[in-house]
Amino acid sequence: MMPVRRLCLVLGDQLSFDLASLAELDPARDAVLMVEVMEEATHVPHHPQKIALIFSAMRHFAQALQERGIIVQYVTLDDALNTGSVPTELQRWHASLQAEEVHVTECGDWRLEHSVRACGLPLVWHSDTRFLCSREAFAQWASGKVQLRMEFFYREMRRKQRLLLNSDGTPVGGAWNFDAENRKALPKKVSAPYPARFAPDAITRDVLELVGERFSGHYGSLDNFDYPVTHADAQALWQYFLDYGLAAFGDYQDAMAIDEPFLFHARISAALNIGLLDLRQLCSDVESAYWSGGVALNAAEGFIRQLIGWREYVRGVYWLKMPDYADGNAFGNTRALPEFYWTGQTKMNCMSQAIGQSLEHAYAHHIQRLMVT
């Protein structure tokens, strides 16, 4: 192989064409490295659908990069030479390609970033600009505060991004937060839209077979896999939500109903978190839907609050407090969770529904996660 100038590592949650470490990529002199490794798939017992989603989306993204003329070194999970971890694969390919530089965008996981930083290679790190608030900016916001209130962080984010503001900088509607208008129970006469589904293609079918063989001991079923694994399908899922879900999301985002795992939720978290959707575009689309009269303020504000409030805030707290945060136990719990947390087999219907749906779909909306399980 010819030596390369720059080797760019792209992780499974970094499948964005505008990833910071890809910004100055020269197809004639540089290469991208993508790896499916057992360490990332097993450091916690991930739902098999999550593993399948990431591996399939990675393979599709690698193909898209190659179609743009970019050299991609792709290591599948079953490659005989696969060393099993991101750092060791990075070392192997750095030596093989004689790369002058190794470029990495900040990881989404402290454990992984710590191991990559310790791999002994001279790395060029890039901030993950797909988020609106950098780690440094959040730390600066948090400095000196006795309490880190999400509400105050959210207001500052709204001001900085100029979202749902009047010309004088005050919030549209006279309030920053319409959470009290997001808690209606679902009336019997109201039906949720049929969920958008994406049939597995040949690449995904291969991945599903691989995951079924290698991770059969993990809790959760692969049978109903229908996640979007390309940018185009993720965008189609987003547009479906804008057309059929957003308007009612404002009233019923906190609702639950028997045998209704999705209701009016967008189901875009997975696509957004692995890089198939752009946060700024999502915010712009929702705000435009409000200004055009397509949705009420409680829907637009409620959704934007999840994106630039909770999502950015939780990420900020995580990086501010790790690694000690992982061992926190504020309530002093010592007992293991009951077995039904992994099977859904319990007479408590709310628990059975929430856990059962998670096992079946690898999905639970925020109320199921926060208020039930």
Neighbour order of strands in the largest sheet:
3-2-1-4-5
Number of helices: 15
Biggest sheet, open or closed, and with what strands and sense? 5 strands, parallel
CATH class of the largest domain: Mainly Alpha
- Per DSSP E runs of 2 or more residues, the count of β-strands stands at 5
If you consult CATH, what is the topology of the largest domain?
Answer: Serine Threonine Protein Phosphatase 5, Tetratricopeptide repeat
Offer a few descriptive terms.
2 domains, 15 helices, globular, Rossmann fold, alpha/beta, Serine Threonine Protein Phosphatase 5, Tetratricopeptide repeat, 373 residues, 5 strands, 5-stranded parallel β-sheet
Notes on the protein architecture:
This protein is α/β, with parallel strands linked by helices and 373 residues long. The protein has helices at residues 38-42, 48-67, 86-97, 110-117, 135-142, 150-161, 202-214, 231-244, 246-252, 269-274, 279-291, 297-321, 340-343, 349-361, 366-372, and strands at 6-9, 30-35, 71-75, 101-105, 123-126. A five-stranded parallel β-sheet has the order 3-2-1-4-5, with helices on both faces. Helix 2 (48-67) packs antiparallel against helix 7 and helix 6 packs across helix 12. The longest helix has 25 residues, at 297-321.
